[in-house]
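Let us work through a complete example step by step.
Step 1: write down the sequence.
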Amino acid sequence: REMSDKVLIDILSRADVVFRSLDTNQNGFLEPDEIQRHLGESYVTHFMNFCDGKTSARNRDNQIDREEFEEYFQHTYFHKGKKEALGVLEDLESWIEHGKFSKDIESVKNHASLMFDYIGQDQSGEIEKSELNYFFGHKHGSHFLEQVDGAVGDGNNAISRDEWETYFSAIASESGKEAAEGELEQVRYFVKQRRMLDNAKTKEDLEVIEYAAKLFHNMDNDDDNELTMEELVAVVGKENADHFVTHMDHWGDGDGS
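Step 2: predict the structure and record it as tokens.
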């Protein structure tokens, strides 16, 4: 029993460290968004069901205090055994130590690195503004430069591989792998389209591309390399413009490049 008590004391001490790591706003409560951000949606349901309102001093209020969190581990220890309690604790410690999406973040970084190589065509080790504009158009190229180099980079008007990977890794850490992969999928789409244009093989391909470019230029009244909804409507009408935007606006901003 003495050994068991020492084990339990150790478990509760480590659980306290986990609690403080999850309580990112340091208000003394674990809220659903904190649990979701660190551990995923399934853990929100699990902990709210088994912790929230489970002590005599508290009612269910959609948040978990330190006492409720410790009660969860005590309950697990006494009703399911030491091995189960330690297993849950070690899982939580591992997730916190290595990051919520440790494997997923590595996958995102690899995908981002591949896209970096496609876009940074001059092999300088940086993506320059001209390269961003070439693939994404001026508007979205400027957006990437602002978001990546301006927000997480050194502000030198170019994006290094580390800055690029950090940007997408941060999305994975904060919003999940799916959100980061969604952003990368948009990048991949534009890279793919640009490569298709650059690698047109037949005379017919080249003729279609040339004709499409002329149409675009004629509709782009302000010469900003973006077709706004207003510019489309003026040429093809509202119904056709809606159709074009639905099928071609992969950034979801209502414009086309």
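Step 3: interpret the result. The beta strands are 29-30, 64-65, 126-128, 158-160.
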